Please model this.
Amino acid sequence: AVLRVGLTGGIGSGKSSVASRLVQRGAVLIDSDRLAREVVAPGTDGLAEIVAAFSDRVLDADGALDRAALGALVFDDEAARRQLEAITHPRVRARAAELAAGAAPDAIVVNDVPLLVEVGLAPTYHLVVVVQTEVATRLERLTRSRGMSRAEAERRIAAQADDERRRAAADVVLTNDAELADLHGSVDALWHDRLVPYEVNLRQRRA
Ligand code: ATP
Model:
C-alpha cells in the first residue's frame, strides 16, 4: 500500500524541479520520460512492434530508435500517433505499476507524467499535483536552458492541454512563476502538510 501521486504540468513548467525536490524529501520517483525510453530500448518487444508498424526507417545505424525520424512520421498524422501511443503507453503504465507495487509499504510514490490530463489518468492516483507557470516564463526558461527555439517551444506548448483543463484535474496546484527557492518552499509544505499525513492515514485505514 503506497500513496500514489501524479505530477504533471505543461512543458517547461517545472515538473522535474518539483520531482527532484520531492525525492530530496523522501519520495520515490517514477519518471515516465525515462520509462518511455526504456520500453523502446534495443532488444525490447516495444521496439520490435514499432518497427513492425512503421518499418525500419525509424531505426538509426546502430539499430536503436531514431526519435527524430519517428517524430517526423507521427507529427501531423493523428492515426500514426495513436498507433504509436497504443504501443508505448500500455508498456509505460505496466512498468510504472510494477515499480509502484515494488516500493516499500510506506512509500510516497511520485509519477511524473507530462500528458497525465490529456490521457485521462487522473483517477489512477490518490492525488494529482499540477505545476503551473506563466507561458511567457516557460518560453523564456525553455529557450534559455533547453536551447529550444522560440517557435519550437510555442508549438509544443500549443500541442498540450491548457492550464485550465489541468487545474480542473488537480488536487493541488503549485505555481512556479518566482524563484526556485519559492518553489522548493511550496513543495516542502506540500510534503509535510498533505503527502505525509495522507500516507499515514492510508496506512492506518488499511491496518
Ligand atoms: P519538461 O516538460 O520539458 O520536462 P519540466 O516541466 O520538467 O520541463 P523543469 O525541467 O523542471 O520543467 O524546468 C524547466 C527549466 O526551467 C529548467 O532548466 C529549470 O532549471 C528551470 N526552472 C524551473 N523552475 C525555475 C524557477 N523557479 N526559476 C528559474 N528557473 C527555473
The chain has a mean pLDDT of 94. The longest strand covers residues 3-9.
